[in-house]
Design a protein that fits this description.
With 349 residues, the chain is of the alpha+beta class. The protein is built from eight helices and eleven strands. Helix 1 packs antiparallel against helix 4, helix 4 runs antiparallel to helix 5 and helix 5 runs antiparallel to helix 8.
Length: 349
Amino acid sequence: MSGLPASPPAFAPALTHSTGAVWTMVAAAVMYPLLVGAVLWVGGLLALLDVLHYGWGYTASLGVVTLALTGAGHHLLLRTLHCLHVPRPWEFPVVLSTAVLMAGAQAMVALVLDLITFMLLPVICLALSLLGCAVWTASRRSPRFSPVLPLSPVVAVALLLSGTWWMGAEEKLRQERDELLRDTAAFPSTIAVLDSAGWRPSTMLFSHSLREAGIIVEDEFRQSTTVYVPAEPSPGLDGFSLTLNSLAKEDAGDRRLHQGCEAEGGTWTCEEHGDTVIATVTREGAVEMMEARKEFAGEVVAILSANLPRDDRGNPTLEFPGIDMAELAERVRPENPGEAEEIAFTVTD
C-alpha cells in the first residue's frame, strides 16, 4: 500500500531584496534617525542657551515636531519600499519609526528633567535605530518571526535609559534638598518670606556676608536669598522675578535702608512708606531698578528687589510692570516655625 509522500515542512518564503532596496534601507537606517536626532538636538540646545523661553509648552511643541517628522519619514520610506517591491514593506518602516519615536521620548525626558544629556540624542537615535534594524534583519527569516520581536529590545533600551536618567535626576534633587535643609538649619537669623498668593518661591540659597571690611565669615551663613516668580504665567511678567534678601542688622549696618540714596550721596531715589524705604533707579524716565527695604524683629533687614529681564548688554527687555512694591513689602514678614524648611522643599520639588 503506497501512501502519499509526506509534505515537506512549511518554511517562510524567501525574502529577497534588490540591491536598490537594500541600499535604500541602509541609507534610511542612518539618515532618518540622524535627521530627527539633529532636530531634537537643536531644540534642546536652544533651550539650554535660553534662546527660547521653554517649559511644558515648548516640550510639547518639540514633541509635535518629532511626531510630524517621524510620520513624514515613515510615509516616504513606506512608499519607496512599495515601489521597490519589497516583501512586507511595512515591517522595516515600523521598526525604524518606533526607534525614532523612542529617541524622541528620551528628548522629552531630558527637557523635563533639565538634563544636558540631550546633546547625545543624535547618537541615541541612531543607536536605537540600528539596534532595531539588526534584530529585524537577524530574525525576519525565522518561521516564528513576529513584528514585535525587533521592537522589544528598542523599547526596553529606551525605557532603561529613561529610568536611569530619572533616577539620576531624583538623586541629584535629593542631595540638593538635603544640602539646602542643612543650610536652612544653620542660618543664625530669622528669614524673611513674601506672603503673597501671587508669587511662589523658585530658588533659595544662603551665603556669607561681610562682617568687617575685607573679612568674610566662613563658618556661618549671614544672608539668605529667596527668588519669587509669578504663581501664574502672565505675558506682562514674562522673565520678571523678585529677590528677597534677609541679613542680620549687624551685617547690614546702621544706614542699610538708606544705602545709596541721594541723601547719602548715592544715585537711588528713596521714599519712605511707613517703615519701608522704596529705592529706585531710573534712566530716561524708565525704571531700571527698584528695591523695597525694611527691617523687622529689631535684628533683620529684608530687601525685596525687582528683577527685570535683560539683554546681553544689561538693558531691560521689559518695562517695569504695574506692581506696587510698597504693597508687596507689607507682605514681607518673618518666617513662621518650619516655614523655611517648607520653602526648601518647594524650590527643590
